[in-house]
Amino acid sequence: MKLLSTGIKTSGMIFVDLLIAFVERSAMRIISVFLVTAAFLLAFAILCFSQPGLDDYIELQDWERVHFVNRGETLWEIACELSDNDYDIRLVVAAIKEVNGIDSLLKVNQKLILPTD
């Protein structure tokens, strides 16, 4: 105790101070990594759950519109015409493919069943 009052630190005290500083820095790193991870997971959850899945999207739509494919037309273009930015275009394309059983290229005059507006 007498050493503490004189302001002189022993090597053991210096070691303890260094150890405390290391633990504090490590704790800050752990907290930082935790916060970044939590923010990433939150963003991921918002993105994943803000759009319905493919099956949900198909169930939510009324598939009554008939469309015949024109020369040069793509599913992407057709989906863009249908979408009002409420749904991800990739989801709309996947749904059209699923409902119409499309697994290859479109053909001119191919009949497609599309969701109504």
Secondary structure elements and their pairing?
Blueprint: H1 2-6, H2 11-50, H3 54-60, E1 65-68, H4 75-82, H5 89-100, E2 111-114
Antiparallel strand pairs: 1-2
Descriptive account of the structure:
By secondary structure, the chain is mainly α. Helix content is 62%, strand content 7%. The chain has 5 helices and 2 strands. A two-stranded antiparallel sheet has the order 1-2. Helix 3 packs across helix 5 and helix 4 packs across helix 5. The radius of gyration is 30 Å and the shape is rod-shaped. The termini are far apart. The mean pLDDT is 85.
Quick recap:
The protein has helices at 2-6, 11-50, 54-60, 75-82, 89-100; strands at residues 65-68, 111-114. The protein has 117 residues and is mainly alpha-helical.
Strand content: 5-15%
Question: Based on the structure, what is the oligomeric state of the protein chains?
Answer: single chain
Poorly predicted residue ranges: none
Instruction: Report Rg.
Output: 30 Å
- Strand order in the largest sheet: 1-2
Average pLDDT level: 85
Main sheet, how many strands, which sense, barrel?
2 strands, antiparallel
Helix content: 55-70%
- Give the terminus-to-terminus CA distance: 83 Å
Number of strands: 2
Overall spatial form: rod-shaped
Sheet/helix structural class: mainly alpha
Provide a count of the helices: 5
